[in-house]
């Protein structure tokens, strides 16, 4: 038994991740060298339970490692450490219990995410730069095509008209892509402006269905929209909510084969308006389900039908939903279709006193 404890002790000490454990008496039971370094301490500096948070700049309270900061189990939070130079850690906390369910303490796993953050920032800066630089030449090209099509630069033959229309269609696709890239960079840099008002979810769904109607007809897809008679009102930015539904319902239409079925349902659940979009499309492989909300992710399995996009729709939708304090969930089995559930909180009415 003692041998096993020694082995575990050695394993924890040599882990590449920082490990901190505070026992139920509130004492520092484990602090491996990675944790010491991650928390900003030099190797000869003494760490005690009272100075454990000495170099953390965004701590909400000094009991951080004991109780956690508003921290749900397994949900990583970001902490900022000032020493020896500013850096960022991801912290995941878990309550450790014995076989009888008695609390043994709180364990925190720390990982340095400074490099990841730096890379993400570089990616965002790049996206923002490229999309800004693409926008104005694209607008000019579109303008030129329109002038030519209108015959303002001379008579246009049928063959020329056909080619110009094709070019115009491709420019539109590019414009959508650039708009998505710009939206993403605005959301990521916190510059997305939203205009919140009390709005009708059903109307937004219907707007989207009208826009998609042509493709739906072409693919002979049946849409069963069960929209509640009592319209749930949520507090949101109407255009952004339309954009969210456009991405989710648009995906269902894009990935569902001809003659498929899409079912849209509205319900209320735990203070949320819930919109479920179910399709009879290809479904999502289990190894991909957690990745579909990552930007630029497109499943190998749907790569043909997704060739019309770049894998930004769901990343944008998720961020916009979160900006509405909502959430999105997906249920899917490969080969059996997918269901996306979108939740928007109902506006809480303040009671009149
Ligand atoms: N309803 C669905 N059925 C099957 N797979 C889906 C569905 N919705 C999304 N996916 C998978 O998730 C990936 C990411 O979706 P997302 O909307 O972000 O990108 P996209 O539709 O490929 O491109 P974009 O939205 O930028 O035009 C898709 O490429 C596809 O593999
Ligand atoms: Mg999409």
Helical content class: 25-40%
CATH hierarchy, class of the largest domain:
Alpha Beta
CATH superfamily assignment of the largest domain?
Histidine kinase-like ATPase, C-terminal domain
The proportion of strand residues reads 15-25%
Computed over alpha carbons, the radius of gyration is 26 Å
Question: Ligands bound here?
Answer: adenosine-5'-triphosphate, magnesium ion
Separation, N- and C-terminal Cα atoms: 63 Å
Main beta-sheet annotation: 5 strands, antiparallel
CATH architecture of the largest domain: 2-Layer Sandwich
Extended strand count: 12
Q: Return the structural class.
A: alpha+beta
| H/E series | HEEHHEEEHHEHEEHEEHEE
Domains (count): 3
Poorly predicted regions: 349-353
How are the elements arranged and paired?
Blueprint: H1 2-14, E1 18-23, E2 28-31, H2 33-38, H3 64-67, E3 77-81, E4 87-97, E5 103-112, H4 114-149, H5 158-188, E6 197-200, H6 201-218, E7 222-226, E8 233-236, H7 238-255, E9 261-269, E10 272-279, H8 313-323, E11 327-332, E12 338-345
Parallel strand pairs: 7-9
Antiparallel strand pairs: 1-2, 1-5, 3-4, 4-5, 6-8, 9-10, 10-12, 11-12
Helix pairs in contact: 4-5, 5-8, 6-7, 7-8
List its traits.
353 residues; alpha+beta; Beta-Lactamase; Heat Shock Protein 90; 3 domains; five-stranded antiparallel β-sheet; 39% helix; elongated; disordered C terminus; binds adenosine-5'-triphosphate; binds magnesium ion
